[in-house]
Write a structure and sequence with these properties.
- This protein is mainly α.
- It contains 4 helices and no strands.
- Helix 1 packs across helix 4 and helix 2 runs antiparallel to helix 3.
- The radius of gyration is 14 Å and the shape is globular.
- The relative contact order is 0.18.
Length: 102
C-alpha cells in the first residue's frame, strides 16, 4: 500500500476492496456491534473495563477477518483514522440495506 490518500472519499474504494470476503465483513459487523454494546454497557454501568474492551472487541474481530479470511494487512496500520471511519460507514450502510429489504 504505497498510495497516500488525501481524503476519505479517495480512501473508501480502497477500503472496500480490502473487504471482499463476506466472512471478513461479517466479523467487522460483529466487532462494531460489540463495540456499541460495550459502549452502552459502559454508559449505563460506569464500568471502565467495558470502555477498555471496546477496541479489543472491534479490532480483534476485524483483524481476525483480515488475517484469516482476506489474507491482507488491515488498513488500520497505515490509515487508522480513515480505516475507523470506513468501518462505521460500512456498518451503517449494511444496516441501511437490512432495513430497506424489509
Amino acid at each position: 500500500m504505497t498510495k497516500r490518500y488525501q481524503s476519505f472519499k479517495q480512501f473508501y474504494p480502497f477500503y472496500l476492496s480490502q473487504h471482499q470476503d463476506k466472512r471478513c465483513r461479517a466479523l467487522h459487523y460483529l466487532g462494531s456491534s460489540l463495540v456499541l454494546l460495550l459502549l452502552i454497557g459502559f454508559m449505563t454501568s460506569g464500568n471502565f473495563w467495558l470502555f477498555l474492551l471496546m477496541p479489543v472487541a472491534g479490532y480483534g474481530c476485524a483483524w481476525v477477518g483480515h488475517f484469516v479470511f482476506e489474507k491482507n494487512r488491515p488498513a488500520t496500520f497505515t490509515y487508522p483514522g480513515y480505516s475507523l471511519l470506513g468501518d462505521w460507514v460500512m456498518y451503517i450502510n449494511k444496516i441501511k440495506r437490512l432495513f430497506n429489504q424489509g
